[in-house]
Amino acid sequence: MKVQHIRLMADYGAFPLWGRYGGLSPEDLPLSAELVARLERWGDRYGAELGPEFEWKSEEARVAFIAEGRQLHALVSRELGDLYEITYVNDY
Fold first, then answer.
1. Which of 2, 11, 29, 51 has the fewest C-beta atoms under 10 angstroms from its C-beta?
2. Collapsing DSSP states into helix, strand and coil, what is residue 36?
3. Hey, where are the domains in the chain?
4. Environment class of residue 77 by beta-carbon count within 10 Å: exposed (0-12), middle (13-18) or buried (19+)?
5. CA–CA distance from 38 to each of 43, 48, 53 (Å)?
6. What is the spatial distance between Cα 51 and Cα 8, in angstroms, rounded to a whole number?
7. What pLDDT does residue 1 have?
8. What's the pTM value of the predicted model, to 2 decimals?
């Protein structure tokens, strides 16, 4: 069986899961409503806490964003299972 590759990556105004050819919609994947809401909040934080020159408002905001992304990576991987390979790319 073929494994689908998905990137967990925040971007301005977009749901933070991406397939090979672009953004994915929450309806495209078998994710719980709770996890979808958490992913949406995390994605919204990216635009709210990152300045126009891609600088974080504070070091604490950057560290918290990365930590939440890592937690979401684990949760998405667990919910989607072995048919998906999830890569987290916002670790900066």
1. 2
2. helix
3. 4-88
4. middle
5. 9, 15, 26
6. 20
7. 60
8. 0.92
